[in-house]
Amino acid sequence: MAKYLFADDASAVLQGWQAPGALDLSATFLRAGGWALPRTEAFPDAARLKERLQELAASVRGNAKLGLDLRGLRGGTDGVLAAAREAGVAFLLHTAELPPAMQALLGINVPRIVAVANEEEASQARAQGASALLAPADKVQSLNHHGLPILAIAENEAQARQGMEAGAFALQPRSPVLLDEPSLPQFTSRLMEGLDRTDQMLLRKGPGNMSRLRIRNLDLSYPIQQGGMGVGVSWEGLAGAVAREGCVGLVSAIGTGYHPSARSPQRFGRPDGTSSLNPPEALATILHAALERAEGRGAVGVNILCAIEGYEATVRAAVAAGAQMIVSGAGLPLALPGYVGMRMWRWCRSFPPHAP
């Protein structure tokens, strides 16, 4: 499968960002002979995904290849894989660590590019039969011994040159800045061909720059706050990952009795009784795990509805477990300052306020 994927390319350019506005960057990449990388939703509609992929397949030109980025996928794997096969997707991109619901990927007869960050993940990907690796440019040389083609991730010209000189088969520019660099002259020319001036500006604009988010002691890389989604959606995995990227990851305090760490009495597979649905000790466990995953970056907070059973105990447990922010709605949180008490206030005051 690896031979099939790379047989007709001396080099390739893999889509590395989404264009703002109405420009369909995936289709533009395909018309220019590049490798398009549309993304799946967390829980996609398989029929709509198939339609989208078939639409993109009509834009394939020359050595262009249509892939599918599965890194955001959280459910509906079988339907997604069926849609990918029927649309003739040339490759799939996913991470080295696969949740149980995505193990079916390992048996699919479609080339798989695995995104890796280190030697351990690269070894795991090779053992799982990966066709190629997607890795940061500065990791290419150290990963060559695995014998797999490597696509190098580059943010600027220096990284692009480093990756290609280290033996990378292909390049994934993560910024439109690289379109104006000498590393991609022929590809850039093809990419711009046929686009009007407005679309060319959108293409070069890329994802855009966002200001930092500053709230008292918190100084975050991006002004993005992930919403709190209950009953298992935004627990340690999602909230910790969002925080690690420099944003606010919110743990939901709803339904923590379903968490594997909860010791709530169960009845027919569900927490038995209102006091078992949102146990504070389970929330504390989730918060500790989320903070660990965040690795000191971003912020981990908790979304606590005023209307839930045991509101006060939940707030106090969140503060004691190290929550850096509390979002509270579904009523007026008039008692919240009293529940938080001086502990969080002193913690906030221990940092100087940011200048406006």
Describe the secondary-structure layout.
Layout lengths: L1 H5 L18 H7 L3 E2 L9 H12 L7 E5 L7 H11 L3 E5 L16 E4 L3 H9 L4 E5 L3 H4 L6 E5 L2 H9 L4 E4 L11 H8 L4 H9 L7 E3 L2 E3 L15 H9 L3 E5 L13 E2 L2 E2 L2 H4 L2 H15 L4 E5 L7 H10 L4 E3 L8 H14 L7
Parallel strand pairs: 1-2, 2-3, 3-4, 4-5, 5-6, 6-7, 10-13, 13-14
Antiparallel strand pairs: 8-9, 11-12
Helix pairs in contact: 3-4, 10-12, 12-13, 13-14
Structure description:
With 356 residues, the protein is of the alpha/beta class. The protein has 2 domains: 2-205, Aldolase class I (TIM Barrel, Alpha-Beta Barrel); 213-349, Alpha-Beta Barrel (TIM Barrel), CATH 3.20.20.70. It contains 14 helices and 14 strands. The protein has helices at 2-6, 25-31, 46-57, 77-87, 119-127, 140-143, 157-165, 185-192, 197-205, 236-244, 274-277, 280-294, 311-320, 336-349, and strands at residues 35-36, 65-69, 91-95, 112-115, 132-136, 150-154, 170-173, 213-215, 218-220, 248-252, 266-267, 270-271, 299-303, 325-327. A 7-stranded parallel β-sheet has the order 1-2-3-4-5-6-7. A 3-stranded parallel β-sheet has the order 10-13-14. Helix 3 (46-57) runs parallel beside helix 4, helix 10 (236-244) runs parallel beside helix 12 (280-294) and helix 12 (280-294) packs parallel to helix 13 (311-320). The radius of gyration is 23 Å and the shape is globular. The N and C termini lie far apart (56 Å).
Specify the structural class: alpha/beta
Quote the average pLDDT: 81
The low-pLDDT segments are: 6-10, 344-356
Number of helices: 14
- Name the CATH homologous superfamily of the largest domain: Aldolase class I
CATH T-level fold name of the largest domain: TIM Barrel
* Widest sheet, order of strands: 1-2-3-4-5-6-7
Global outline = globular
At the first level of CATH, what is the class of the largest domain?
A: Alpha Beta
Q: What is the N-to-C succession of helices and strands?
A: HHEHEHEEHEHEHEHHEEHEEEHHEHEH
Cα-to-Cα separation, first versus last residue: 56 Å
